[in-house]
## 1
Amino acid sequence: MENAVSVTVNGRVHDKTIPIRMLLVDFLRDELGLTGTHVGCTYEGRCGACTVVVDGRATKSCMMLAVQANGCRVVTVEGLENFGGSPGALHPIQQGFWERHGLQCGYCTPGMMMTIFDILATNVREGAPELTAEAIRQSLVGNICRCTGYSHIVEAVQSAAAQLRAMVPEERAAWFDTARLGEVRA
Ligand code: FES
Ligand code: FES
C-alpha cells in the first residue's frame, strides 16, 4: 500500500508517494539520498546513529514511519551548515566537534550531533543552568559510540555550549530556528 507524503527536509519540501511501511531513515537515505543519517543497529532504536530532528525534537528515524513525518519539518546532519546563512558556515555543534576532536571513525557523529542539537536548543536558553559533563553523558545515553570513549564528545558539547552562550540571544536562537532553512519545493 502506498501513501502520498509531503515532508520538509533541511528546508526543501519533498512530495513523494511511498510504501506505508517505509521507515523515516530509509526515506531519508534511499528516497532523498541523505546518507549522513546512519543505521548502526538493526532498526531497533538502540544505537542512535539514525537520529534526526523532527519538529525540533531529536528522533530516532528507525523508530518512525515516513508517513508519520507527513507535514513535519525534519533536519538531518546535512542541514546543520544551512543555519549560518552562508555556504560552509559551521554550526557551533560542528565547530565544537572539530575543535575538540569529537569523533574518530565518525559513524555515530551525525546522530550524536542531532541529539546535541535538541539538548543545546533547550539548554542555552536564558537562565538555564550550564550543562555538566555528567548531564551531557546522561543526555547521550541513547547514542552509542564505539571509538571515542565519549570524553572528546562531552568536551565538544561543552565547547559548542560556550560558543552559544557568548552570543546575543537573537544570534543564539538563530542556530536552532529550523524555519530559517526555508521551504523551497524540491
Ligand atoms: S539505526 Fe540504531 S537506533 Fe536507529
Ligand atoms: S566515532 Fe566511531 S562510533 Fe563514534
## 2
Amino acid sequence: MLHKVNPPDCQAELNELIGYQRKVLQFAVRNTAYSDQGFRAVMGNDFVDWINKGWNHSLRRVHRVFRTFLQNIQMLTKQPRLEKEQVLTQFENDQDYFDNLDNPHFVFSFDVNSKQTHEIARDVLVGFYNLLGIGFPQVLFPFSIEDGIFRKINVVEGFKNTNAFIQYVCPCCDNNFADTIRANIEGYTLEHYFPKSLYPAICLHPLNLIPMCEGCNSRKSDDDPIRPSALAPATIPLPELFHPIKRPVSTKVNLVFSSRKPKLDFKAIYPPPDYRPSIDSYDAFYGIPSRWENVWFRIEGRMDRCIKQAIRYFKMQGKIITQENFNYIIEVALEELQIEIGREQFAYPAFHWLNWQLKTSFENLYCSYLSEG
Ligand SMILES: [Zn+2]
C-alpha cells in the first residue's frame, strides 16, 4: 500500500470468474437441492464437466478441493431461500466496494458471522478462489491463455505487466523481494487486502488482490483493515483508508526521523484528515518504520564513512575544505549511495533519509568534521 499499484491486466478474466461465483449463488437461490442437471442448466456443461473431472481426479489434494467445493454448494441449496437471496444481494453490494472508497456511507453488507447460510456461502466463494490454485481451463473463458489454464501466477504476471517496479520491490514496504522468505521463487504472495475469510464476496475482485512480499503478507494475516481487530483497535472510515490502487500511503504520509529518540515514524503530509487512525493501523499491520530503521542507519553509516574518507583525503593533500569542497564531497557520496540504492531498492526510506539529512544535519556534519582538526 505504500506505493501506487495499477490493476493487473487480467481484470477481465477475474471479472469472468466473479461471474461464475454469481451464477453459483443464483443456482443455490433457485434450487432447494443439488442435481447435476439443474447445475448444468445454470452453470453450463463446460463448467460442470470440469468440476466433475476435478472430483474424479487421481490426486487426492485436487479431488479434495473439488469435493469440498461441490459439497458446500449442496449445503447452500438446502438453506432458507430468503437468506440465500440476502447472500446474493450482499454479494452484489460488496462488488462495488472500490467505487465507494470515497463514500462515507458505504458499508460492506456480507457479514460472515450473521447466519449459517453466510458461513456456507463464504466457504463456497473462497472454495472457488482456491480452485485458482489448481487453475481454470480456457474452455471456461473467452480469452486466450498461454498454456490453456488460468492460475494465481497469471494474476501476479498481470501485475508485473502493468507495474514495472513490482518485479523489484514490494509495493507495501519497498523491500527487495530477494530479501524475503523464499516461499516461492520470487517471494511474491497474493494478498487479499480485505481478507477473504471476512470479505469472501470480493475474494476474486481484481482491486482486492495485491502481490506482496512474504514479510508484509504474513504480518497482517487475516486482520480487518477497517474494523477493530487484534492488531489495530480503531475503526477506519473508508475515505481515509489507504489502498494501493486508490490511495497509496506515500501520497498521504511522509517518513520522518526524530533524532532524540532516535526513531522513524509516519506523519501525515497535509491535514485534514490527519490519517492518524489509518497510519496507526498501517503501522500495526506492517510495522514499516521499525522494519526500516536498520536500513536507515545502514544508509547513514555508509554516507558517514564516505564523507569521512573524502575529508581525510582532502587533508592529506593539504587542501582546505571549503563549503564548496564539502558540497562536492556530499555530491560524490550521494552518487555512491545512489548506486547502493539502485542495488538494494530501498528507494523510499533512502529518499526520505536524504531529505531529512539535507534539511537538518549536513551543516552540523560539516562543522563537526572541520573541528576534528
Ligand atoms: Zn513487503
